[in-house]
Amino acid sequence: PVFNCMAEATVSVESLFTHDLLKKFGEQEAKLLKGGEQEFLTLQKTAMTSFTKGTIIIVPDWSQHAASPKAIEMLRQQLVDYGWNTMALLVPDIVNQPDAENMLVYQGLLAERMAVLMEKAKAPYQNIIVVAQGSSGALLNQLYQAEKLTAPQGLILLSAYLADPSLNEAVSVALASHKIPILDIQQQLDHPFAMAQTQLRLQLVRKHLKNSYRQRIIPGAIEDQQYQQWLFKEVYGWLNSQGF
User: Fold this and answer.
1) Are the CB atoms for 55 and 43 separated by under 8 Å?
2) How many CA atoms does the CB half-sphere of 172 hold within 13 Å?
3) What would you measure as the largest C-alpha separation in the chain, in angstroms?
4) Residue 127's beta-bridge partner residues?
5) Burial degree of 8 (CB within 10 A; 0-12, 13-18, 19+)
6) Where are the beta strands (DSSP E) in 27-80?
7) What H or E segment, with its residue span, contains residue 201?
């Protein structure tokens, strides 16, 4: 027999995640949405309380999926017991070369998906909070600063950074410039690019008189149960302190 070496096309990481998450969670939680030319998956849960405070949109880093054990799944599951709907987004495929041009492409795809989620999460008298991790969080933060996305009522950043010194510094400038209340969480031994901006962010928010900024550094690794317990306490405490 003759074998065609081109017979098997390359399958994207996102399509593999989509298949696995649909199989694991079923259509009750796993929902396919459309935005522009994109079809993408979200994991949705409704609040398990008599009164719903709003919706928390959870955006993993571009190396993680919508039920990632690195804090994403913990927040997605636990926040529903405290009055929040949760919507976890499956982000576009990772950028292999994180230069400015490729990150702009990823950022555009991410913005298109977030616009769909923001519209879906709208409800009278309810809040929308965005929890965004890693490079996804850094790029969303810049979209808010540029007013290219509807602003949520609060933004929680988990180890937000970009792997380029000048672009990474621009993330800190952006978060100090826009008016969205921010909880900025880092690990004690975080990615070097995340840790490099810790002091600069505090300086910039003071310079811009941004009082709605809180920075927290949590000990341990993000996979550890103790870290995730501390993380949830910080998130829940901040939400309460903001009146949500």
Assistant:
1) no
2) 21
3) 72
4) 54
5) exposed
6) 30-35, 38-45, 54-59
7) helix 198-207
Mean pLDDT for 138-157 is: 96
Segment holding 24, helix H or strand E: helix 13-29
Q: Where are the alpha helices (DSSP H) in 48-164?
A: 72-78, 100-121, 134-145
What's the pLDDT tens digit per position in 189-224? Answer: 777 888 888 999 999 999 999 999 999 999 887 878
Q: Are 18 and 38 in contact (CB under 8 A)?
A: no
Average pLDDT, the chain: 90
Structure tokens belonging to residue 94 = 């990772």
Q: Tell me whether residue 4 is exposed, middle or buried, using C-beta atoms within 10 angstroms of its C-beta: 0 to 12, 13 to 18, 19 or more.
A: exposed
d(CA 110, CA 105): 9
Burial class, 55, CB count within 10 angstroms (exposed 0-12 / middle 13-18 / buried 19+): buried
Nearest residue to 243 via CA among 59, 53, 115, 19 = 53
Alpha-carbon separation of residue 133 from 117, 155, 204, 209 (angstroms): 17, 11, 21, 25
Contact 79, 52 (CB under 8 A): no
Q: With contact defined as beta carbons under 8 Å apart, do 174 and 145 qualify? A: yes
Angstrom distance (rounded) from CA 160 to CA 197: 10
